[in-house]
């Protein structure tokens, strides 16, 4: 199995996701969820990490983690092994609880921390478990929306709330509106914009990561994401390859005003994923559309993935052709 890319440095932010093996539940009851949060508290103290948001679903969990040291792998491995040992012993089971290695996406907190926290806190709503994120007891949302006894001592709220107001109560009210007043059915997954599925940030952040951590690494075969991240894919290459895959002219893709143009939508999506450009720069290449229009298109393609597996397979094949892998 190929190893996932782990970029570690002090002050890094990550979205951590781990799922049950073969889609199985990782929590059987509320006592399991409380035990997991207990291990999470211990991890905060033991590895000097900060937890900015969390959501425990039945088959998986989400965390936003900040590391004071370059130790995300050690911290999450300890958390997973400790909890899995407890769970197997309690429920008299054997074998792997989690599905392979955990997923970690390095994030540019300045650009994506708020949006990602909202996406995580709305997980129970999108899953139709509850109508309001505040009604779900196993996420950090209540700590942000209500405060008081709902705040775990180990949860770090200041960074998120400081994005809104100087007073905590006003910041909580604004964060609540930020989360609850969006139509979650129209909200895409921010991580569809992650370059190589590993880094979520703007062009300058991606370039800094490439220059600082990826130059000189030669383990492409073991970590396939490296080839994507070290490469600067010209947007012309993306447009040309998509045009060849759909048998259409490049102008059919780049000119705006064509509704239902799947080739154009896929070219925009792949440009955002592979080229390391800002949404505004991408929009300029597609007839001068706005950065917001680029985001809407990418979110639309991401939603279609969930409905049409063949569509996702086709796009993955086009991506391999672009990357020549």
Overview of the structural elements:
This protein is an alpha+beta fold and 325 residues long. The chain folds into two domains: 13-186, Transposase IS200-like (Alpha-Beta Plaits); 233-325, Chromosomal Replication Initiator Protein Dnaa, Chain: A, CATH 1.10.1750.10. The chain contains 15 helices and five strands. Strands 2-3-1-4-5 form a five-stranded mixed sheet, with helices on both faces. Strand 2 (49-56) and strand 3 (60-67) form a beta hairpin. The two termini are 17 Å apart.
Please tell me what the overall shape is. globular
How do the strands of the widest beta sheet line up side by side? 2-3-1-4-5
In percent, how much strand structure appears in the residues? 5-15%
Helical segment tally? 15
Instruction: Give helix and strand order, one letter per element, not per position.
Output: EHEEHEHHHHHEHHHHHHHH
Structural class: alpha+beta
The biggest sheet, with number of strands, parallel, antiparallel or mixed sense and barrel status, is:
5 strands, mixed
Measured as a percent range, the helix fraction is: 40-55%
Find the CATH topology of the largest domain.
Alpha-Beta Plaits
**CATH architecture of the largest domain, please?**
2-Layer Sandwich
Count of strand segments: 5
CATH superfamily grouping of the largest domain = Transposase IS200-like
Number of domains: 2
Average per-residue pLDDT, rounded, comes to 86
Gyration radius (Cα, Å) is: 21 Å
Q: Separation of termini?
A: 17 Å
Specify the oligomeric state: single chain
